[in-house]
Amino acid sequence: MAASAQDAHPWAIYNARFRVVFPILDADGDLVTAAAALDSEVSQDQGTFADATNEATEIATSSGIYYLDLIATEMDTKCSAVIVKTTTTGAKTTPLVLYPKRLPVLRTGTAQAGAASTITLDSGASADDDFYNGCYVNITNNDPANVLGQARRITDYVGSTKVATIEGTWGTNPSVASTFEILLPGDTVNVAQWAGTAVGDTNTAGVPVVDTARVAGTAQTAGDIIGDTNDIQTRLPAALVSGRMDSSVGAMAADTITASAVAVGAIAADAFAAGAIDAAAIAADAIGASELAASAVNEIRDAILPPINTALSNIEFLMVLASDDVSPGTGLTVTGTRSIDGGAFAAVDGAIAEVANGIYQFDALAADMNGTFITFRFVAATANDTFITIKTGG
Known about the structure:
This protein is mainly beta.
C-alpha cells in the first residue's frame, strides 16, 4: 500500500490510514538504533495479534524513532493494539494502543476528478466557498488501487467548481471513480445540520438558516419571526397582569399619538408624581389650543387661585331654599348678574349649571372678570339670592 507522511493525523480516524510514530527503547530507556528483524503485529478489538500489512521503519538516520503505516482495514475498529518486536539485544517490545475516532459524516459522494493536492466533489456539493474548510475528506473505495483510506484535511473549497484543496498531497491521487466521505473533525460544529436535518442554506460566514417554524420543538402558528413581530399588537393580552412594555418617547415620530388615540379619562389625575414632568420638557406650542377639549380647559382654569383679571374662572356657590326648609335648593333655574368695581349689575356671560345637590357652578368668561372687585348675584325663583364678591389678581 502506498503510504504518505500526510497520514500522520492528530488522532487515529476510523477506516482511514494512520501513520503512528514511536521510539524503540532498551532496558535503560535509551533509544535503540537500527533495530534488527522488526516484526509489527496488530490486534483488532482484542483479537489475536497478526502481522501488520506494513512494517515499522526507522526515521533516518540512526534516530531510534520509528513509524508504522496502518492501513484503513486495520483501523476500522474501536481499538487497535500494536506491538513492535526486534531481535536486537537489549531492545524491548514496543506496545501501542490506538482508538480510531468515528467522525460525523457530513456528505458522501463520487469524485468528479482528483489531482496531487485536490479532489473535485460531486455536482451536488455545496455551492458556497469555504463551506467544507477544516473538514476531512476520506476516500472510501479502492479505485484506483492504493487510494482507499486516505484522509486529508480540506484547507480551501471553491463552491462554483466543487474543488477542494487538501493539506499536503495524496499518497495516490483519487480519480473520477473514487468515492469519498466528508468528515467533521472533533474541534468543529456542524452548522450544515441541526438535529440531523439539513439546513436550507449556509452562507460564507457559517451562519445557518434557522427554521423559525419550530422553537424548542414546538410548532409556531405563523412560523415567521418578522411576521409575528409585525402583528404583535394582536398578540398582546387585553391586560398585562405582570410586567409592562416600555418605550422611549424620543423614538416616536411627530403626531404618533393623536388626540383621538387617547380617550377622555385615560390618564388619571394622580398618575403623575409631583415634578414628574419638567416644565422645560414641553416645548412652546407643544399643545395647541384646539387640542384641549372644553372640559380640559375648565380643569386648568379651576387650578388658578386666586382668579386672574380678564381670565376664565370657575365659581361654585350654594343656593338655599327661601322657605323654612334649610335644605339646599336643587333643580332650580338660576340666573346671574355681576357688578364690576361698584358699577351697575349686568347679566353675566357664562353658563350656570348644577354640579351637585344645591351646588352650582358658574363658568365666568373674561368679560365677567374684567375688574378688581367683582360682585356676583345669583337668583332662583324659590331660593334665597346668593352674593359672592371676588378680588381678582394681576
